[in-house]
Amino acid sequence: xxxxxxLWGVAFLLPxxxxxxxxxxxxxxxAPDLLTVGLLVLARELRTxxxxxxxxxxxxxxxxxxxxxxxxxxVVLTVVGILGSRSRDLFVGDSLVFLAxxxxxxxxxxxxxHWVVAGEEVRGDATRVLLLEAPVAGVYAAAVGMAxxxxxxxxxxxxx
Amino acid sequence: xxxxxxxxxxxxxxxxxxxxxxxxxxxGLLLIIPVEAQQQISSSLRGSVLAPFIWTQDLLRxxxxxxxxIDELQLQLDSTLAVVSSQRTLxxxxxxxxxxxxxRERGGAAFRSASVVRPGxxxxxxxxxxxxxxEDGVRVNQPVVMAExxxxxxxxxxxxxxxxxxxxxxxxxxxxxxxDGETYGIVETARGAFREEDRLLLNGVPxxxxxxxxxxxxxxxxxxxxxxxxxxxxxxxxxxxxAGWRRSYWLEPAVRPQRAxxxxxxxxxxxxxxxxxxxxxxxxxxxxEDEGNSGDPDGAGGEVPL
Lengths: 160, 306
Known about the structure:
By secondary structure, chain A is an all-alpha fold. Chain A has one domain. Helix content of chain A is 72%, strand content 0%. The two termini of chain A are 15 Å apart. Chain B folds into two domains: 7-49; 110-293, Rod shape-determining protein MreC, domain 2 (Thrombin, subunit H, Beta Barrel), CATH 2.40.10. Chain B is 35% helix and 26% strand. Chain B is an alpha+beta fold. The A-B interface holds A 19-20, 23-26, 47-50, 52-53, 55-56, 59-61, 63-67, 69-72, 74-75, 78-79, 82, 117 and B 12, 15-20, 23-24, 26-33, 35, 38, 41-42, 45-46, 49-50, 52-54, 56-57, 60-61.
């Protein structure tokens, strides 16, 4: 099957899985942030403007459950989408180490940006969020995202 | 390979930048629009694109609630069953008391009703206290009975209370016979590992005599303690045979002593109002049958040897 098609399929399914786990099953923080993973994967395939649009759309969906910081996720994921798309010009790689670093760092950036954009009523202690929650969430999302991408064959090393 | 077109590339970059800034501005706008507008947007999203996920959660919640309700219903069912069971116990006790009352009415004033108290102390197994004593006409060695049959015998008597032993006591012995009076023996206790396994053994039955299962065994009246005709139990099966000499049979006891809460003491102050005691425990015996099955070797019938 066309690798790009599989990648698009997985990138489309990841947000669905994200909302299913977080909202449908009510797992909350126990479920990985597959929305960011999906966006990061998709952003590598899209132009910057389209990636920003994808980020905005996914962020808006996430914001539908946010009362005190409506729009924060839209801003954050728009930025993440732009950065993810621009990362293609800065970093070229298809190794597992790169994939893991990309997903983990991207998720950490998403948490960090959200902490910045969200109001004081929402954001918690900076040290706790940036040094504990965000790194753990980044590693968790990267691990699950990598597993999904590798199992589905959406991420294949060039010439591999 | 297509020719490099810098203008086209620059145009695409400009479009990307404009789009990116537009989406960023749009996202930033979401942060500052009035709360009512924010709620309208989020509400419409929750009601459309995100609705399946919310339905999923609602479905799961309902499932969990139903599971909890099932647990709650199970608990209520258990409680109801417990209440019904306790009422069943009361009903059974009520029936036992009614049967006892009926026995007393048919037996006459010679039967003194009494309540049973089990001491429950170490070494008091097979013994029970009665709330009747010497002032009520109770004497040592008087039989204690229930509507179902023989329970035990009085061993000690005080002015207002007495101590009795039931048939599970190792010292318990009673001279007994089959209902037809053809076969005699001594009934004694055969203790099991648990009280529920205690059984009665009809011993000393002549070797040449065979007793069928289900035959009632009553007191024979040959001793000085028990009058003739109190139901002891029914024959279950052959227990042992000593070749050429004797047989013994397992008996199903007429009474389980642990069920006794109220009993009757058969006193000798008043005469019995029945012709034969067997009629009290086996009422289906007609007078003709009773006469025929009395097994009285002397043919005296009728008279109860107290």
